Amino acid sequence: MMTKRTIQLLLLACTALLIHAVEDDGRHLLGVRAYGSNPNFKLGRCEGDCDTDNDCLNGMICFQRGSNRAVPGCTGGAQDRSRSDYCIRRSDLGGGSAPPPTPSPPPPTPNPPPPTPNPPPPTPAAGRGNLVCHQRNKYQGVPGCRGGESNGSYTDYCVSRGGVAVATPVAPPVSPPTRQGSGLGDSNYRFQLRLYWQNGYTWQETTRETWWCIQCARCNKFSLGDGPRVGCQVTGDTDRSCRAGDNLWIRKCKDRRRDYQFNVIKNAGSGDQVRVDGTNLCLSTVNNRYLELRNCDRSSPRQLWKRIDNIKKFELRPYHQRDWRLKDAKCISQLHHPKDKELVGLHRCRTTLDHETMYWEEYHG
């Protein structure tokens, strides 16, 4: 006779088999399931909370989301008030529960409607045909499409390059600084962005002080791991080698053989921007996960960071997350303990605090 414990184990096994059978059938949508912020096992489809693709089973990716945001290929995300991220199949990104924007009918007259005042410029898209990626703020219309005004996310959309006219503002020229600057608050004040270190920190099994700074990298695709694995290459020896679209990684910087410096731009009533010294390129987020360099635009929420008051020790977290709890907000850091040519991106602030990699500081060599 089977014991009660044996029956329970059999029921659990049958449930697991049923779940995996449904997961393998693309015609079904699974409900999201959250197991807390730090599960100690690999997560399956529609399971969370994940931080990176490494938290998911093979063949799946970690879908980063905000509160009440739908999860592609899963149900229940729109009702989930937490900011948990969930594992999904790559193929789910092509469909899922969030419908794509519907193109609007052609205008009744040959004259196009007036452009939205000062919209962000479209940037080349990685899609097909003659399309560009229209970068927008929440509740901002999408040229040639409808529904943008009611969309409270910061999602960007592909639009036709030859469609409705989009006014492209011309960024003012930026003259390279000719002096060191007088300190925080002076946009000419330049310094290297060093990962903050203090006595007692243990990185890579040693308490010896090490120097890691952010530098430009040119990569084949976005990643949060080792740069060389995704084809990242050194751009040069100084910040003058940085270009729009470059990614960021950490390199040893004590000897100043490579000199990449940055400025902090203060914006009244808003967040700070971090600019590559002598350029018009600012740190910009991608999908609340990755980092790249884009032309500085103080109206873009992707470039605004929590205000920096102490240049000797500060966080770099998105401005709109400045009051979020550590377990919900994301901060610029790298995976676990620092190592050479590791890409930096957005990670849970709570995790980076545990790894002693949450803060940054100025460095002058």
UniProtKB/TrEMBL annotation:
Residues 98-124 have a biased composition (Pro residues). It comes from the Eukaryota. Residues 88-130 are annotated as: Disordered. Residues 1-21 form the signal peptide. The keyword Hydrolase does not apply. This is Ricin B lectin domain-containing protein. InterPro entries: Ricin_B-like_lectins. Keywords: Signal.
